[in-house]
Amino acid sequence: MKRxxxxxxxxxxxxxxxxxxxxxxxxxxxxxxxxxxxFRSWWNxxxxxxxxxxxxxxxxxxxxxxHLPGSYKLWFNLLKEARSFVKQFSILE
Length: 93
Description:
mainly alpha; single chain
């Protein structure tokens, strides 16, 4: 008989792997592996959020940049997404 992760008392891995590194509970399975100073952890969390949700992606970018302020890739992609988001609004209206 196969037991699910919830029955075994373990958190679901999909709920852990794609969280932003600063949102992982210290008691979770991945707490020892997640590093807030690791670019790949932040990038996976950003890519897990749908691209249509700019506000939630921007908040993850900003939190990531507070830990990795020198990351060109984070800055470049945040500014690129912000430009495409504001292009949908008209200045004249």
